[in-house]
Amino acid sequence: MTHSKFISAFILLFTFSVGFAQSQFNAAPGDKNTIIIEGTSNIHDWEIKVEDFTSKLDLSQESESVKIGSINLTIPVKSLKSGKSKMDKNAYEAMEADSYEMIFFNSTSSTLMKEVSPGVYQANVKGDLTISGTTKQVEIPLELHKSSAGYTLKAEKDLKMLDFGIEPPTALFGTITTGEIVNIIFNLTHYKS
Asked: Any idea which UniProt keywords this protein has (predicted)?
């Protein structure tokens, strides 16, 4: 390779690397950042809020798309709060919270998100979700909203508790039973770290 060709190749490689450089963004618990778990029972619908979590998002901006390198989410099980101590206790027991203290989600591949409107990107993200010691691969429809502050991640995902070995909790000697499917709703703004 001639000297001029070597320099040209180096410049091209450098430009490519800069164009795809990833940045890390983090989200922390707060009023604007919410993870909510919705469920049903034979008496009434219910809701649990996640009061503590750690969320990291590695991504790079490309012309009309955003490339997610990785998403990592960690939730302490006992940070799930319904506002009713008995319901919380039943949930922790069902999830074996003393043995499996954390819920983890880790994306398993990079994902190119398409811009569907100015500053709004969509894609399905695949990853490993670990609950109560059981890991399953899941696919989550994800939406990112870009702002001057960072990126707001919005998503909803239905999960079957039995897929993770969790028996739907009951109360009052089995007279109150919860539905097997829960819906998890994410609204998290990530700021550049």
From this structure: Signal
